[in-house]
Amino acid sequence: MQIGWQRLGPRARESINNQMEATRSAIRLRKWAIATEKSYCAWVRRYGVWLVVTPEAKGLPDSTARVTAFLAGLVSGPSPRSGTTLKQAMNALVFFYEHVRQEPLGRFGDIPQPKMAVRAPTVLTREQVREWIGAVQDSHDQPYRLICRLLYFTGMRISEVLNLRVQDIQWEHSEILLRAAKGNKDRQVPLPCAVMTDLRQQLERVRLLWQRDQIDRVPVALPDSVYNKCRRYGLAWPWFFVFAAGKHCTHPRLGHVVRWRLHDKTLQTVTRAAAERVGLLGVATPHRLRHAYATHLLEAGVDIRTVQDMLGHADVATTMIYTHTSIRGGFVRQQVEALAV
């Protein structure tokens, strides 16, 4: 499905831009993530362009039929999209019609389901993990190897590691607190002794950035919920990113200069280069370290429900009290320490 913004006239562009702005406002009203805002607005734009440049769209009876045809085109076109992309587009357009147009959609017609490739997950051995992380090269201002070690030692998601704030490192309990993680739930993961020294050194490095920002009065980017309640936290050390970006940037919503955290793509590039150096290109991505964490703990005898809890999976909520006890109690911690690279 080839869709060209350049093919539109000025009136059509203005209309679509207005729809995107209305979508953006509706999302910000709900305090949703910036990534969601960008994704939904992109789909509203793409759908709006499709309505203009696709002749058959004008002959469809209603909005539900038009959305159905658009989604079907994503799957059956020359470049078929994945099931994840299809779901993302569907969620964006359902939101647009219900909360922006105030015109809830009806039941969708038949949409071809994308063919899902069934692949067994590739799990790295402990030796492969050691070789790979050992090949990761730090830059002058970012400890990429430390980030990878945290991914493997804790099972955190990439976004969870990069979003860590100074106050999330709970030294007194040797734990890391993940605030409003996936599913909007807090959880704790053990902080292994093997990374404590490097982590303290990292905090010393970013504290220098924070001190410079104090002089320049440049705040750190805050979650919307925190910014709306107490924006002065932007200059508070506890809210500073553990892996802060080396340069300032303009906040995409607020428009003023802030200190953000390291970008995911930068980490992806560094780890891909390291994987290539040790012959693991294609099977070694940062997220594989999370898979390795879970697999190696299970192989060591850690209860599967405990592992699922530390990974932040919702279906083990009933065992939360027992898993928190076991994290501090010794067995799980011993197994996590044994992963040390």
Describe the protein.
The chain has 341 residues and is mainly α. It folds into 2 domains: 5-100, Tyrosine recombinase, N-terminal domain (DNA polymerase, domain 1); 126-337, Intergrase catalytic core (hpI Integrase, Chain A), CATH 1.10.443. Helix content is 52%, strand content 8%. The protein has helices spanning 10-29, 34-53, 63-76, 83-100, 126-135, 144-154, 158-162, 196-216, 224-229, 264-277, 286-299, 304-311, 320-329, 331-337; strands at 169-170, 175-181, 185-190, 244-250, 257-261. The longest helix has 21 residues, at 196-216.
List the helices and strands and how they pair.
Blueprint: H1 10-29, H2 34-53, H3 63-76, H4 83-100, H5 126-135, H6 144-154, H7 158-162, E1 169-170, E2 175-181, E3 185-190, H8 196-216, H9 224-229, E4 244-250, E5 257-261, H10 264-277, H11 286-299, H12 304-311, H13 320-329, H14 331-337
Antiparallel strand pairs: 1-2, 2-3, 4-5
Count of discrete domains: 2
What is the CATH homologous superfamily assignment of the largest domain?
A: Intergrase catalytic core
End-to-end separation in angstroms reads: 47 Å
Rounded to an integer in angstroms, the radius of gyration calculated over CA atoms is 23 Å
Q: What class would the helix/strand composition place it in?
A: mainly alpha
Quickly name the level 1 CATH class of the largest domain: Mainly Alpha
Q: Strand order across the biggest sheet?
A: 1-2-3
* Overall pLDDT level: 85
Assign the CATH architecture of the largest domain. Orthogonal Bundle
Instruction: Tell me roughly what share of residues is in helical segments.
Output: 40-55%
